[in-house]
């Protein structure tokens, strides 16, 4: 029995890594509106059917692990595509990951280590359930215009110079903490990740230092990603966290539409032992 995993570009998986693990990635789209502003669109049912057909040629079973329905309608189209393929004798298991960014990408990688869709889905669910994504943006209005953030949070961040540290999950985007000033917010972004990894950067109860996998995302400047990865790795060592790997990649084009320039993100996910 063999398994092929399909995900979408919201997973922010480097192409070489996805190819090496046999993961098929379906792109989310950016669309230029009449007023010149950009918006986004989910993959079409036809595109997903093509991707699932390709995956079915590579393996005995297909598992589609997609971006959370709180941020995209991709999983709705995925289920429609799976129903159509089922009538043709091609079974596809569709999973709403409840995640995005590296939390989705690392879950897809964990799933791809399984031999069948049932075990792959279980690994993806465990990964996302124990993952945390933290991110910063320079201008909250991009998220507000895209309907990803409520007007009150965007107003506070814009008018008072407060930089919220944000997170995303099954319920959408929420605020972890608010910090004044860009440099201080970046330090707190790292501190939140260190704490989630079992380090000692923040006071109060913290999880044990179990092995973790990390993902670092940046907007339009690779130097920002390299600098964040270096500072994060140093902080993890200092705090005694156990890091198995760090994946660095830019946010995908569709996500950048909503995040705006200069966004930074960190994902902390569990290190799952490969299945026996």
From TrEMBL:
Presence of the UniProt keyword Lyase in the record: no
InterPro entries associated with the record: DegV, DegV_C, DegV_domain_contain
UniProt signal peptide: none
UniProt keyword annotations, A-Z: Lipid-binding
Pfam families: DegV
One Gene Ontology molecular-function label: lipid binding
Name the UniProt record assigns to this protein: Degv
Protein source organism: Actinomyces glycerinitolerans
């Amino acid at each position: 029995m063999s398994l092929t995993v399909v995900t979408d570009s919201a997973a922010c998986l480097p192409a070489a890594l996805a190819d090496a693990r046999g993961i098929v990635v379906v792109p989310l789209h950016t669309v230029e509106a009449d007023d010149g502003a950009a918006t986004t669109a989910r993959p079409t049912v036809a595109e997903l059917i093509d991707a699932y057909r390709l995956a079915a040629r590579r393996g005995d079973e297909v598992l589609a692990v997609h971006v959370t329905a709180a941020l995209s309608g991709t999983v709705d189209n995925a289920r429609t595509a799976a129903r159509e393929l089922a009538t043709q004798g091609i079974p596809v298991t569709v999973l709403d990951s409840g995640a995005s960014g590296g939390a989705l990408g690392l879950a897809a990688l964990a799933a791809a280590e399984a031999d069948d869709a049932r075990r792959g889905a279980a690994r993806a669910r465990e990964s996302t359930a124990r993952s945390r994504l933290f991110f910063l943006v320079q201008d909250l209005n991009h998220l507000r215009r895209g309907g990803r953030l409520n007007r009150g949070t965007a107003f506070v961040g814009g008018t008072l110079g407060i930089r919220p540290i944000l997170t995303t999950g099954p319920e959408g985007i929420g605020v972890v903490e608010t910090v004044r000033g860009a440099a201080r917010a970046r330090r707190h972004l790292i501190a939140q990740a260190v704490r989630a990894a079992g380090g000692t950067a923040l006071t109060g109860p913290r999880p044990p230092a179990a092995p973790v996998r990390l993902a670092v995302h940046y907007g339009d400047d690779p130097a920002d990603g390299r600098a964040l990865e270096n500072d994060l790795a140093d902080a993890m060592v200092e705090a005694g966290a156990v890091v198995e790997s760090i994946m660095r990649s830019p946010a995908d084009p569709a996500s950048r539409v909503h995040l705006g320039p200069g966004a930074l993100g960190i994902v902390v996910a569990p290190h799952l032992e490969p299945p026996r």
